[in-house]
Write a structure and sequence with these properties.
57% helix, alpha/beta, Rossmann fold, two-stranded parallel sheet, 186 residues, binds adenosine-5'-diphosphate, 5 strands, single chain
């Protein structure tokens, strides 16, 4: 049975953590374009070198690149049971995803939106920076990522909301509390 869940929400909202938990409970594959791109950088592939500057500055990698990554992953799957985490991030990506899913006859099941006030996001990302060593977790780059979210990604709320599958989730609190809220709407 196909199952397609799209996680929407700003950087630092905790999408990755919740996606891992839900993926293991529901036997879904977590598709994080951020992780895929970081993996290319870590392996030093041609793509990795090409995107390094862009990703480290907080801007978005081109739609063509991320859509191609997603297309490759989906085409290798027998049943489409996925959580998209960090994708789509632009209206153009959402439209490309609609085309891919249509071809695969795999409709979107639900679109949880993780909501966190911006001031708290800044703090969370900077706390994470102290633990992990991500080049895009510096204060200036964090501001850029938040701005890119507001300008490019937040419009996806208006894209999915009229379809009726957008689920707003208060993402403040412990990871267990947020997970319980997520499970209540999935
Ligand atoms: P976060 O959710 O914490 O911002 P991600 O790991 O999802 O982090 O993404 C990190 C960076 O990777 C983004 O700032 C962007 O440069 C790039 N990236 C990830 N996903 C996409 C995407 N769907 N489209 C374009 N760029 C992307």
């Amino acid at each position: 049975m196909h199952k397609v869940i799209i996680f929407l929400g700003p950087p630092g909202a905790g999408k990755g953590t919740q996606a891992k938990h839900l993926a293991s409970e529901l036997e879904l594959v977590q598709l994080s374009t951020g992780d895929m791109l970081r993996d290319h950088m870590a392996r030093g592939t041609e793509l990795g070198q090409q995107i390094k500057e862009i990703q480290n500055s907080g801007r978005l990698v081109s739609n063509e690149i991320v859509v191609a990554l997603i297309r490759d992953k989906l085409s290798a799957m027998e049943s489409i049971r996925v959580i998209f985490d960090g994708f789509p991030r632009t209206i153009a990506q959402a439209q490309a995803l609609d085309v891919l899913l249509e071809e695969l006859s795999a409709p979107i099941s639900s679109v949880p939106l993780f909501e966190v006030p911006e001031a708290i996001l800044r703090q969370r990302i900077l706390d994470r920076a102290a633990k992990e060593n991500r080049a895009d977790d510096t204060p200036e780059v964090v501001e850029k990522r938040l701005q890119v979210y507001r300008d490019e990604t937040a419009p996806l709320i208006g894209y999915y909301e009229p379809r009726g599958n957008l689920k707003r989730i208060d993402a403040l609190g412990t990871t267990d509390e947020v997970y319980a809220r997520l499970r209540a709407v999935i």
